[in-house]
């Protein structure tokens, strides 16, 4: 179900981007031809296109007479005045952002959370047992402390845990398929659509990828474990200790992850909706250090080496592509 939701979201983002491109270039036959090929690629694409057009209609704009398929009817179309196109694109981006938010499971996540943060916000939460949890932007956790144990679920985003030692009450963190079991230590956990990543700064932890709490690997300081969100498979790497939880100082360190994954993290710091319709670009893998204090600059630094460009549709939307 999660994979299907992600595919629908990507298709809708692509449809929104096609609509904005065609509004800017209504007479471009090659663009219309490319759209036709995209529409023919799948039923999901055609459904996403219809959703984009309905959003446009809700904005009060007259539907272009070529919008039903946008197939070879571009001749004779009078383009919208430049200022009107800009206002319409801005409104479309706002409506798209709202639609995506309401359609996503994010609302349910925040209902479950005991503690959460908004875009660009971070906070430190001190739990009743003395453990400290530093929440990154756009993050949420659910906490359950009992005499038998201490359990935290990372529902979204990223958190750095500094766990108070208590031999009688193990401390566990669930993040997707990843489960971390500790007694007293410091570590960072990041969750996105595809993976959960654990980086150990101090102490020793056991990590499981089956979600059942049976540790299958032991980590030492400087170790990083990435758990696949579908299979539970764990891959290991090492990272400099000073870069673990670097986001607390406004820096984001990533090691061999996809551009899509990095953008998902940057999204938590950026007030605009970031769309990556180019799936090939989104799957490119990167390693680097990015400045979260300037998310637009970080976004450009992320995609430019791979031929990507960041288009600022408005203050509320960024489109990343290679054209």
Which labels suit this protein?
single chain, alpha+beta, Jelly Rolls, 13-stranded mixed β-sheet, 8 helices, 18 strands
Distance between the termini: 32 Å
Oligomerization category of the chains in this entry: single chain
Label the structural class. alpha+beta
CATH architecture of the largest domain: Sandwich
The helix/strand series, from N terminus to C terminus, equals HHHHHEEEEEEEEEEEEEEHEHEHEE
How many domains? 3
How is the biggest beta sheet arranged? 13 strands, mixed
User: What share of residues are in beta strands?
Assistant: 25-35%
Helix content: 25-40%
Shape: elongated
Give the overall pLDDT as a whole number: 81
How many helices?
Answer: 8
CATH T-level fold name of the largest domain: Jelly Rolls
Radius of gyration, in Å, reads 22 Å
Number of strands: 18
- The stretches of 5 or more residues where confidence is low (pLDDT under 50) are 59-88
Q: Class of the largest domain, according to the CATH hierarchy? A: Mainly Beta
Your description of this structure?
This protein is α+β, with helices and mostly antiparallel strands. 32% of the residues lie in helices and 31% in strands. Strands 1, 2, 3, 4, 5, 6, 7, 8, 9, 10, 11, 12 and 13 form a 13-stranded mixed beta sheet that branches. It has a three-stranded mixed beta sheet with strand order 15-18-17, with helices on both faces.
Which helices and strands, and how do they pair?
Blueprint: H1 2-24, H2 29-41, H3 43-58, H4 82-103, H5 106-112, E1 115-116, E2 123-126, E3 132-135, E4 140-145, E5 150-162, E6 171-175, E7 178-182, E8 186-191, E9 195-202, E10 205-208, E11 217-219, E12 223-228, E13 234-238, E14 251-258, H6 259-267, E15 273-275, H7 279-282, E16 285-291, H8 295-303, E17 309-314, E18 317-321
Helix pairs in contact: 1-3, 1-4, 2-3, 6-8
